[in-house]
Amino acid sequence: MAIIFNHVTKKIGKSIVIDDFDIEIPSNQITGFKGINGSGKTMLMRLIAGLIYPTMGTVSIDGKVLGKDITFPPSIGVMLENPAFLNGYTGYENLCLLADIKSEINADRIKEVFNIVGLTENMNKKYRKYSLGMKQRLGIAAAIMEKPDIVLLDEPTNSLDESGVEMVKRIVRAEKERGATVIISCHDGEVLDELADDVICIKSGKITDRYVPNESEV
Amino acid sequence: MKYIKFLRFDLRNGLLKKYMSYIGIALFTTIVFLDCQSVCRSFDTGFTLGEYFMYLYGGIKKYVPTPGEPFKVPYLWLLNHLLILYFTLNYTSADLNGFGQQTIYRSGGRVTWWLSKCSWQVIAICMYYFASWAVLVLLAVASRETISLEITQNVHLYLDFGKTLIPFEQIDLSTELLLLPLLFTVSIGLMQLTLSIIIKPAFAYIISATICIMSSHTQSPLLFGNYAMAARCNKVITDGMNATVGEVSMITLSVICVALGAVRFRRYDILSREE
Amino acid sequence: MIRNEIKRSICSKAFLFALVMMTLFATLSALYYIESWSGYNPEELNRYVDAEGNSKYSPDFAIMSLFSAWLGGDMLSLAYTVFFTLIPIGAAIPFAWSYHVERKCGYLKNVATRTERKKYLFAKTCAVFLSGAAVILIPYIINILMVSAYIPYHMPWAGYNFFNIVYFGTMWADLFFTHPFLHMFLFVMLNTLYGGIYALLSYAISFYIKNLFAILFMPFVVTLAVGYAENALFNRFRSTVTPYEIDPTKFLHSRSIQFFQNSKVILFITVALVAFSLGTVFIKGRKNEIY
Among C63, C216, C221, whose Cβ lies nearest the Cβ of B82? Predict the structure, then answer.
């Protein structure tokens, strides 16, 4: 699913958070967003998810304009900022509630996803008892469980230990192999350069650079 | 289908799990029942359910500013509406700032989410009223009071209707007595819900409270709370508010709020906002 | 630290909103009387008053006086009703929620590692109190300035108590007839104090309840409940007890709106509310763990 930003500008109040962003993100590849805090990476992901709309310009998914032809991308999995779930439910119940909306997957797939993110032992624990790392893993599980065509992961390695970071790398590569378009933002430049096919550098809502990691080595 | 799923989720998490608010309503009903009973016993008379509802929903007679006669706030009437509006205040904004962000993009459409929240608001308010009525009936049965919506002459012992009261034999209030307060809370609740996505929920509640207070003070067709007071109804007093006009007005307000909210929400930026 | 907290409490949109809201109702109350009593020639009423404020021609003019037209003497307008009923909310909006928000977002952890808890709580208490008090005081000042620009003062006359409703034996009643400006000043100060107290109450509630709306609106709802309970109790015991006003939004008014204002009762209520608020903040607040 190709994602096209056509001269997109987004203002929140008086601040310009995305400034004339004009780019195409090709499908079936891992694209990394690199930038300091407040550069606009999360806002870009919100624009792709259809949670916010551009002040100027358009965002289109496979030729369909968000906010005009479609309200949300038809097949997308999102993990933005601190993932929010329901405190009174277990991790498993939280994912069941979400899966029930589209009814595309069954209980086996949910359990499989818990296994992938390494949360099988904590599946039946109440969400309010999850540590920060466990909450992060659950957020990733929610984003990938329905095998969406677009996967957005905003700082997925936050709060994760070394094994968690390796888990994220495995998941991202597996999603690409499955045929999804993966967009990932990460503070750790090394992780991004290792994973991404294409890295877009962002500063103050503008593109400052775009490169293919390890191209010179190739 | 997704609307039904959303609604089912909202009813479970926004209604069934909020048992503390039901306890609050039950407590409130019990206290008012005992108060009403005490008043009637002090006049050495029993009361019907209809008279209890008049006590709770009757409000206050039309206030004419007169030197030496300050306005006395109808606390009971205000508490009934403001408590329910308070219980239904937080759910939608909390969902939009939290779990709702996960569900809304899965739904494929924003209006589905909005309509389910509006439906939740209406059902929640109705449920609080039904819970209150259920507790009341139980208390009336336990106290062996008359289970009837009939209003007798005893009601003017504790509710001042002023001088324009129509003859008692001509008073027929059964539908309006229960329907109008419910409709008012529903319409103001939907207005509060719509305002909470335009301005913050706290300010939406302040506006709701201000409208209720203004309605209690000033008799005006633009202040819909007037229609929710039996003491200002044209079926009780000669110069009262037309109940039918009230029903139509409140339903119209509700529809406008839902439509306005849908239009606003279609372009609403879903961000994690501070409270 | 105190200066920073006070600056944050006053220089904020929340303070501005609360101030505008309360000032709007205070202004509407003033306009109601200016429109009713000053007519189109504001100087006309002044012709009937001498330099000491005594009526020249008729004691009836004692009714149409500044002392009946200011916000604390207003008993008729919609604006006064809304103003007094919304005092608990107006006072809480500026800064009473700040402890809850700082605890929730983690700012409290930063503070706790940099200063003594006692200093932080003291600074916040001062800021909360001052912002709540200011939101009530400023509208009063604006109201009095507006009304006094159009309506002259006349010494109140006890013969018109059916209109004034200042009953002998109620709090500061003698001052109303002898030193009405002092009477006005004392009630403005009492209202200002209660603006601060209501803000402190909301602030204290945030140590027990972690819900923003409960923090903002619980004092308001409880005050309504007190108003209802007062009526209910009076109905039950009216033949045996003298009813004294216990609802702050009624005893803050300079007239006996419903029941008699008794200074001992008001003092007791004030001390109880202050003790609860400060006790919660400085005892429970110092022991609260920070997660």
Answer: C221
